[in-house]
């Protein structure tokens, strides 16, 4: 019974799905993390600290001692958090409390560091957080919207045809297609085709990496996500990101 309750409680944790991005952001604030450890975890001899994870009850900081050994400290919040918007003010308040008590200057004042923002964005995009009990199917595939898929294929097909055709060939096409062709100079189309194809292949590689990192999908669905993203680019990538958000938050959206 206790185990069942623990799993249910964890699956409903409103903060854990955001742990990757928050932890990546906070990992840049080394002085703040060290203050957390020294004050709240009472590790006065710690020489460095790294923010590792966060959930509704508190956060984990890994710290290093003078002899080189590393340990983890879990620091509890005074009150469990209930939504993402509470994370920043609580962490800033705890940092202020710790730094004032230790006689240290404020380390979170000023604009957010670019490095912290970049790390947070990357960590959030590649996060493979899996709740202990997901109400959203993990091993699934969302096809690209039919209308968008047709538009992408038509656009890519037109660019390819323009790239291998001569100006004389273009003159034999219907007038609307000729007008479409005139958007760019004719000699640009081979370059546009190569660039667009390269982007689609790169997106497919990224999709493959996301699928493998998540570890949710069968080989068949990994292949579907990868091939779909190569063919339809951002149209399929949006669906892959959507599935990740649904799993993390436990809500399936139409």
UniProtKB/TrEMBL annotation:
Signal peptide from the UniProt entry: none
Residues annotated as domain DUF2470: 19-94
Source taxon at top rank: Eukaryota
InterPro entries noted in UniProt: DUF2470, Haem_oxidase_HugZ-like_sf, TMEM254
Pfam families: DUF2470 (PF10615), TMEM254 (PF14934)
Identification of the protein by name: DUF2470 domain-containing protein
Species: Umbelopsis vinacea
High-level lineage: Eukaryota, Fungi, Fungi incertae sedis, Mucoromycota, Mucoromycotina
């Amino acid at each position: 019974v206790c185990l069942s309750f623990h799993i249910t409680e964890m699956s409903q944790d409103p903060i854990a799905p955001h742990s990757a991005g928050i932890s990546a952001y906070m990992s840049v604030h080394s002085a703040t993390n060290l203050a957390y450890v020294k004050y709240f975890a009472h590790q006065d001899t710690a020489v460095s600290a790294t923010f590792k994870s966060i959930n509704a009850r508190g956060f984990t900081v890994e710290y290093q001692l003078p002899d080189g050994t590393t340990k983890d400290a879990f620091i509890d919040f005074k009150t469990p958090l209930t939504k993402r918007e509470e994370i920043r003010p609580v962490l800033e308040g705890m940092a202020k409390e710790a730094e004032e008590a230790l006689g240290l200057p404020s380390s979170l004042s000023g604009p957010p560091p670019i490095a912290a923002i970049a790390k947070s964005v990357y960590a959030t995009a590649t996060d493979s957080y899996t709740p202990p009990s997901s109400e959203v199917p993990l091993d699934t595939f969302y096809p690209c919207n039919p209308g968008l898929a047709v538009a992408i294929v038509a656009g890519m097909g037109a660019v390819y045809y323009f790239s291998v055709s001569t100006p004389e060939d273009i003159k034999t096409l219907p007038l609307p297609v000729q007008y479409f062709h005139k958007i760019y100079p004719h000699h640009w189309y081979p370059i546009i085709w190569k660039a667009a194809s390269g982007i689609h292949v790169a997106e497919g590689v990224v999709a493959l990496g996301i699928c493998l990192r998540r570890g949710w999908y069968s080989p068949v669905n990994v292949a579907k996500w990868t091939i779909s993203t190569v063919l339809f680019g951002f149209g399929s990538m949006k669906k892959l990101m959507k599935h990740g958000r649904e799993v993390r938050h436990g809500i399936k959206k139409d």
